[in-house]
Amino acid sequence: MSDANRRLVSQVLFWTFGCVCLIPLVPGSKPVLAFVAPCALVLGCLLALTVGNPYAAEAKKVSRTLLQAAVVMLGFSMDFAKVFAEGKRGLVFAIISISCVFALGYVLQRLLKVRPLTSLLVSTGTAICGGSAIAAMSSVTDAPQEDVSVAVGTVFLLNAIGLVIFPPLGHAFGLTAQQFGIWSGIAIHDVSSVVGAATSWHDPAALETAVAVKLSRVLYLVPMTLIVAYFWNRRNGVTKSTKPQIPWFIGLFVLASLVNSYVGPVREQGPNIKIVATVGFAASLFLIGSGLSRKTLKEVGVRPLLQGVILWLFMAVTTLIVVRAS
Length: 326
What we know:
Elements: H1 3-18, H2 36-49, H3 56-75, H4 80-89, H5 91-112, H6 116-129, H7 131-141, H8 145-172, H9 177-187, H10 191-199, H11 204-218, H12 221-236, H13 248-262, H14 264-268, H15 270-289, H16 294-300, H17 302-325
Helix pairs in contact: 1-2, 2-15, 3-13, 3-15, 4-11, 5-6, 5-17, 6-7, 6-8, 6-17, 7-8, 7-12, 8-10, 8-16, 8-17, 9-10, 9-11, 9-17, 10-11, 10-15
């Protein structure tokens, strides 16, 4: 196939697959709504690994902004009191679990002989919020692009798997909607996949809890990044100023939640805004998936992936035990 024909095919498939993200806008689509997010991610990956993404550079830029906008829109359908309560309840466990992931990540780095900075980025992505946390940590540790690519690739693969397998596992373990929301909010890496998995649960309580737990966890991004980066830079003689990326969209989400809770006309439109947010999340997952490449898969390697798998299993299993016990 010539390059011109290949690009034409990739463009056609890009827009065809992208239409899957619009399913929530179709009347009567509720029965298949749970499959939209996983399908969008899988289709994005298939596009990237076969004919390639014709808009790779644009997709990378748009996916981040679109994801943050979808998070804010989701706030217009959530009750602030519930969001605050879930975040407050998980405070102690969040601090303990994040600290344990970093400690275990350090041990695994020594045992598996993973590049120190790659290991740090994988641990950060697992402990807090996936790719966003990796980007924040890399910005304050002056991480080379190869370390960032390996860490993002590792977390991405596990994040995609979590989106697909968590809902059936949650049902198999007999979790309630709230229990599943807590479990997925902590053990799945990225916000978009947390929303996708919680949407697949067919219960609004799962989505509300999952988003509240995950976004409250994202708030630890700034202090944890500052603390870890300070000791890392001091140990390695790096003089880069530690100014992490601040997740401003979390504040807008809280503001949207407050508006929904106390402004009647906005609350009435909450379900419609939630549908638009669902489309935004599905589209961001499609664009994220389309950013995968064979080069990234080759760069990941066995040892960083093994570290990522062990950390992910540690988070998933310990959180599941705590959730079921409580």
